[in-house]
Design brief:
Helix 1 packs across helix 2. The strands form two sheets. Strands 1-2 form a two-stranded parallel ribbon. Strands 3-4 form a two-stranded parallel sheet. It has four helices and four strands; from the N terminus they run ββαβαβαα. It is mainly α.
Length: about 120
C-alpha cells in the first residue's frame, strides 16, 4: 500500500496507481477458482484495513482474511509476567478496536463457498 498512489499509506514512490491496484485485485480473483486469503503480513492495522477496503472497492469476492500480527502482537501467553498485565490491557482496548476495524472492513467480503458456486456451506455437502 505504501507504493499505491492515492492511498492513505502511500509514501511518495509510486509503483501503481489506485486504479491499477484495483485491477490487480480483480486480476488475482479472475486467475483462480479457489478462495484466496488476504494476509496482514505484519503490516499495521491501518494499512491492513486499507488493503481490505481496497479489495472491497475493487468488487472482488474476497473470502478470508487473517491478521494476527496487527491484532495480537501483544497477546502471547509466553510473555514474561512483567508484560502480561499491559498485554491484557492492550488486548482489552487496542486489540478489540483492531478486530472491530477488520470486521467492519470485511463487510464487502463474500463467504468462501461462493467460489465453488454454492449458496451455503450446507449446499457443498
Amino acid at each position: 500500500m505504501a507504493f499505491v498512489e492515492g492511498t492513505k499509506s502511500f509514501k511518495g514512490e509510486k509503483a501503481y496507481t489506485r486504479a491499477e491496484a484495483l485491477q490487480h485485485f480483480r486480476d488475482a480473483e479472475a486467475m483462480t477458482h479457489k478462495p484466496f486469503i488476504y494476509l496482514s503480513a505484519g503490516v499495521s492495522n491501518p494499512v491492513f484495513i486499507e488493503t481490505l477496503e481496497l479489495a472491497g472497492e475493487s468488487g472482488t469476492n474476497s473470502t478470508v482474511s487473517f491478521a494476527a500480527e496487527p491484532h495480537g502482537r501483544m497477546a502471547s501467553p509466553s510473555l514474561p509476567s512483567r508484560v502480561q498485565k499491559p498485554s491484557s490491557k492492550w488486548l482489552e482496548t487496542t486489540g478489540v478496536e483492531n478486530i472491530n476495524n477488520v470486521n467492519n472492513a470485511l463487510k464487502a467480503a463474500s463467504p468462501w463457498y461462493l467460489k465453488f458456486g454454492a449458496s451455503s456451506l450446507e449446499a457443498l455437502s
